[in-house]
Each structure stands twice: as structure tokens, then as C-alpha cells.
Design a protein that fits this description.
- The chain has 4 helices and no strands.
- Helix content is 72%, strand content 0%.
Length: 75
């Protein structure tokens, strides 16, 4: 993974700093999927590859297929 920086509202930044690790991880997953959908939308193969990589990483971290599916559907 690589880090990128995005600007957010001050109140949101404070809420992020105070959020539990589990909530931050769930939000990171949703953001990753949202960005991938937007930036890879012209290439279904690239988006599919991204999801497969994410699925593998999340599986290694203990996330179930049902949890990943839920994150993908949340959009």
C-alpha cells in the first residue's frame, strides 16, 4: 500500500484522529474502493484486478468474503 494525502474538513480530521482502529480500517477499505471505481471505471479489467488484490490483502488481515462484499455494496 501507498499513502496519499487528501484535505478534509477540520471537524472530520478530528473525528478521524479519535476513531478506533477498526473504524479507520473499514473507512480505508471503502475509500480505496470508491477511488478505484472512479479512477479505474474505464477499465473493468483494472478494477477487477484491484478488487482481487484487495480481497487477498483483506483475507490475510482476517476479513471475510461477506465483509468485503458488504464494503463493495456500501457505495
Amino acid at each position: 500500500m501507498e499513502t496519499i494525502v487528501i484535505e478534509v474538513d477540520d471537524q472530520l480530521a478530528e473525528a478521524w484522529r479519535n476513531a478506533p482502529t477498526s473504524a479507520k480500517e473499514a473507512i480505508r477499505n471503502k475509500i480505496n474502493i470508491s477511488i478505484a471505481r472512479e479512477l479505474l471505471k474505464d477499465s473493468s479489467q483494472a478494477y477487477s484486478s484491484f478488487l482481487n488484490t484487495l480481497r487477498s490483502e483483506m483475507s490475510s488481515a482476517g476479513l471475510t468474503q461477506e465483509e468485503l462484499n458488504s464494503i463493495v455494496r456500501d457505495e
